[in-house]
Automatic annotation (TrEMBL), chains A, B:
This is MYB transcription factor. The chain holds residues 1 to 198 of 294 of the full protein. One of its GO terms (cellular component) is nucleolus. The keyword Calcium does not apply. Residues 1-61 form the HTH myb-type domain. The gene is LOC108859547. It comes from Raphanus sativus (Radish).
Length: 198, 198
DNA sequence: CGGTAGGGATAGGGTTCT
DNA sequence: TAGAACCCTATCCCTACC
């Protein structure tokens, strides 16, 4: 039993990401020796960096899937008024019907690529905003989520038009200046993150 | 669709306790592989062992500190926020190195895993020390544990001789003056607590 | 030996069932 | 509501291979 468990702080994680950007993956000892990161990561070993990077990669790839589970679970809690603490904006929302996002093979009627009626073309702006908020909520990143994560979440969970990223970027700007989102800038972060406020 | 909840039998629980005595906590796979216990625990996974041990410990903790905990919660409605960075207790250290803590393989002949023949009369001092450290570790009390909690933990988890308390008290004194334990005096506490240090 | 990649085990937080 | 059993996965450990 070494240390009970040393959770990675957002600072450390940011430093690791920045380190990988600078030196590349697999250069754990190099990152650790870089004075730019050594102070933040002083309590980590090269192996720790490797493990953490693996974990980050895995969760990034996976991205959504857990959303499906969350959605399923949200449908059960009956007590409607349950609004504990400061759940900022929309409490969980189910974007796609549970069953539907499954590959939904055997789509009767055959090919019709159009069978996926969930085209964003049908969504209004406010709907996009809602999706953004949902993404941030479900991504559950303690420090908020950056654009890329938000994009990926939406891509994985919705049928998106080619200009989705641009639209999302626009809405993010709007939501963080007039709306319920907040930008988070961090010393070692290369990108701005967004989180929701109450 | 999960398993129909397999309740732990007294035999399994006894085997688990004996396994922890022999190999220490956190050695779940080792315990499971030990032919002395594997037959009894063959339907359990290492994770099951870990979970069961946790339940046992929690029960012991509640048995000993229930009132204090409740009192604390009433007084401090706000739960402690995350305290990463320098977790005081987290750096807890391996009191006895994994490798050497291995008790002498001369496990008392009792073959049946179900028998807890672990009467302290046969235990060496170091073994008692290990149990004390284990108690403190598993009690997980953020400010260390006092004598009474330690006594109760041991009583609930091990077969003990009548003079256990005295022996434990003696060992606590020793461990905190020459060993890996530290006494903690708290402003509003009546008794001295003990915790382990690196 | 020092370092990295992978596989596997453990620790803790959550969830489900009773 | 609580307790026991079980699940999820971040973190940590071990080993093979340079």
């Amino acid at each position: 039993m070494g240390a009970p468990k040393q959770k990675w702080t957002p600072e450390e994680e940011a430093a690791l990401k920045a380190g990988v950007l600078k030196h590349g993956t697999g250069k754990w000892r190099t990152i650790l020796s870089d004075p730019q990161f050594s102070s933040v990561l002083k309590s980590r070993s090269n192996v720790d960096l490797k493990d953490k990077w693996r974990n980050i990669s895995v969760t990034a790839l996976w991205g959504s899937r857990k959303k499906a589970k969350l959605a399923l679970r949200k449908t059960l809690p009956a007590p409607p008024k349950q609004d504990h603490t400061n759940n900022t904006t929309s409490l969980s929302i189910v974007p796609l019907a549970n069953g539907q996002e499954r590959t939904n093979p055997t789509s009767p009627g055959g090919s019709g690529a159009g069978s996926l009626q969930t085209h964003a073309s049908k969504r209004s702006i406010t709907s996009l905003d809602r999706i953004i908020l949902e993404a941030i909520t479900n991504l559950k990143e303690p420090r908020g989520s950056d654009r890329t994560s938000i994009f990926m979440y939406i891509e994985e969970n919705f049928k998106t038009p080619p200009n989705m990223k641009r639209n999302v970027a626009v809405r993010l700007k709007h939501l963080s200046s007039n709306g319920p989102l907040v930008k988070i800038k961090h010393k070692y972060r290369f990108s701005t993150n967004f989180t929701s406020v109450g």
